[in-house]
Amino acid sequence: MLLTTVDAATLRPATRAVLLKDVGGDGSFTFFTNYGSRKAREIESCPRVALTFLWLKLERQVCVRVRACVLACACACVATRAGCSG
Hints:
Layout: E1 2-6, E2 13-17, E3 20-23, E4 29-31, H1 38-45, E5 48-55, E6 60-67, H2 74-79
Antiparallel strand pairs: 1-2, 1-5, 3-4, 5-6
């Protein structure tokens, strides 16, 4: 899926591809990110983001505007990622 964030200081949007890990029954979307990345800093300073993904079966794209937050299980989830040093 594509994740779009905004730099709070310059109001410049940035879009990048991220791996969608889960869609919750409550309409939540889960993806992983490095807390030290530019993407994470942008989400922390301006948590309003947009998610866009293709729904090929319906020949449509879906765009969702949401407020991003850190999951309570984030530390445990990070430890399960390939290449995690600990």
